[in-house]
Amino acid sequence: MFIEKSGRFLRWLYPAATWRMDKNDHSVYLTFDDGPIPESTPFILKTLREFGAKATFFMVGENVARYHDLYNKIVEEGHQVGNHTFNHLGSYKHMAITYAANTQEANQLIHAHLFRPPHGLMRRTVYWWINRKYRIIMWDVITRDYSKWLTADDVVNNVKKYTRNGSIITFHDSLKSIDKLKYALPEALKWLKEQGYEFKTFE
Ligand SMILES: [Zn+2]
User: Fold this and answer.
1) Which residues are found with C-beta within 5 Å of the ion, ligand 1?
2) Which among 25, 33, 111, 173 is annotated as catalytic?
3) Ligand 1 centroid vs 82 CA: distance in angstroms?
4) For 14-67, what is each residue's pLDDT tens digit?
5) Hey, which CATH number is domain 8-199, 3.20.20.370, 3.40.630.30, 3.40.718.10, 3.90.1310.10?
6) Quick one: CA torsion of 9, 12, 13, 15, rounded to 10 degrees?
7) Between 8 and 99, whose confidence is greater?
8) Spans of all domains in the chain
9) C-alpha span between 166 and 84 (Å, rounded)
């Protein structure tokens, strides 16, 4: 299911979600899921600063509670914030009401109007509820930076191969991805800049 391009089935399942921005605009939307954590967030922020790029961080409430200074730093540096539930809830394991309460709990810390479901999946009942309260942001390009089967070069190549106008590109602010991102993030940003892409965040 987790391929570099978002599948048609998912797009059909969540029709009101945003998968890609304006295809006539030579811009990309960088997103970072699962943080903030001290092992990776400072590096990501520093790299974004070096490239003058703004991004959107879909954060997990329990990480924001633990590392609130990192949350503050993300906001101070002008990045956008998004809700990614309090405990990175799995898609179908929880009742809709549990999922909704968990998301609300996270939002008391994150104060977001954007939401991205962990693993890109949620029950339809959850989807309808979330969609009334948040703008749901999915993705157009998954870098798979979390995969142990991929090298840092593969991650850069995924960006080069699949990015197009209006792409929403997903990276992870996590322990699984940081070793690859140390090389792949600056390389990807350098390439995107060379291609003339602008970096934007969501309204
Ligand atoms: Zn996630």
Assistant:
1) 33-34, 118
2) 33
3) 11
4) 889 999 999 999 999 999 999 999 999 999 999 999 999 999 999 999 999 999
5) 3.20.20.370
6) 150
7) 99
8) 8-199
9) 22
Pull the structure tokens for residue 197.
Answer: 């892409």
CA 124: distance to chain centroid? Answer: 21
Å from CA of 75 to ligand 1 middle: 19
Q: What is the pLDDT of residues 143-152, one digit of tens each?
A: 999 999 999 9
Tell me, in angstroms, the distance from the centre of ligand 1 to residue 33's CA: 5
Could you please report the per-residue DSSP string of 92-112?
Answer: SSS-HHHHHHHHHHHHHHH--
145 carries an active-site annotation:
no
Query: Does residue 172 have an active-site annotation?
Result: yes
CA–centroid distance, 117 to ligand 1, in Å, is: 7
